[in-house]
Write a structure and sequence with these properties.
By secondary structure, chain A is of the alpha/beta class. Chain A has nine helices and ten strands. In chain A, helix 5 packs parallel to helix 6. By secondary structure, chain B is mainly α. The chains are: A alpha/beta, B mainly alpha.
Chain lengths: 262, 180
Amino acid sequence: MDTRQNTHSKPESALPRMRIRQLTKTYQRGDEPFHALAGVDLEVTAGEFVAVMGPSGSGKTTLLNLLAGIDRPSAGEIWLDGERLDTLSEARLAILRRRQIGLIFQSFHLLSNMTTVENVLLPAMLVGRSAGEARQRASALLEELGLEAHLRKLPGQLSGGQQQRVAIARALVNDPAVLLADEPTGNLDAHTGQEVLRLLKALHAQGQTMVLVTHDAQVASQAERIIVLRDGRVIDEANGHTALSASAAPGLLADVSHLELD
Amino acid sequence: MSLKYVLLGLLSHHPRYGYELKHEAEQLLGGGAELNPGQLYPMLRKLADQHLIVGERVEQEDRPDKRVFTLTEAGAQELQTWLDEPVNLQVGRSALFLHFLVLALVRPETRADDLRQQRHRLLEYIGHLVADRAKYEQSDDLATRALREAAILHTEADLKWIEWLESLTGADGHLLHAQR
């Protein structure tokens, strides 16, 4: 049985949800070492929504893959709820990843020969939930995301926006400590991308901790905190849009768009 | 953007009084635009002088006379010519551009910080604009939605421009090519 279920929703402790220290990833590029990440520090508190922004090649996807345990750092530390990830064995890391980390990708990565509900329940079964329990949880999530009419469809029968919502349901099925998203709106048209962004904001409002990497300023601006990467380093950190600042912007459109009439 | 064609366009439907033109032009422009009478009435006078419109006095009891404006044949033709011609891109030297140039002139040593501050401001703008879009999409008129979208996309472009400037800038804030 999954005894660790929901451990992350205990009362807040002083520990950050996620903490990385001097994270470095070096590749060999010909004779030259290439630093995809060159000593990044970052803390994410429980319930926080952090966006990592930067041009392509800045190291953001490398960072996300390291946080997700898909890739291993060359140096530095990654901690999740007080547990160090980068020194775990492959097997233990795989288990932790399934239980604690939800992943969303630009190209959805759904299994094309499984139905919507099967795609979502699979990670729940992999952590040891009963088939019935997993199916119930998967159906409930899909319903919440407005996909109740599509439970038995294959991914290929769904639109891009629907597929990404299925992927989000799959990422959430084990109540992950942190949801990691790599360009989640990158493969969607503008309107569908906005819907997915709204959905992510709603999840954050419900307390979901999220780290999202994107080159898209529209998406990044909706996080609480924006980290800017360049050449594998953090070069800037900015506040994103919060409910608090939302009330202070009447007439913004008039302010930013000058009426220049001659 | 020229007020002239906004006025000719509004008059192409039917004649209007001055205060109607002000109100309708503001509606058309969206986003809470306000036209000041000091802009509007001299423009109407100029258009009348050019015979693109005609202003006729209408007497009112107890009140000063008002004018009703009508589009002339020449005005209609000028409007058509303008509408038929696609508009050229005007990048222009924006306030942001000039701000950057003068900062670089006066205190190049703070360039990296100044660019960061500017990014923060732009991210704040775009954050509000995107959140407002989600909030008001259903209720706003087309002009306001179009204006917001333009503001969002221009802010995105400005953020990329800052990224580009940063790519020229070393960790110490100096332009890289200047060091070579």
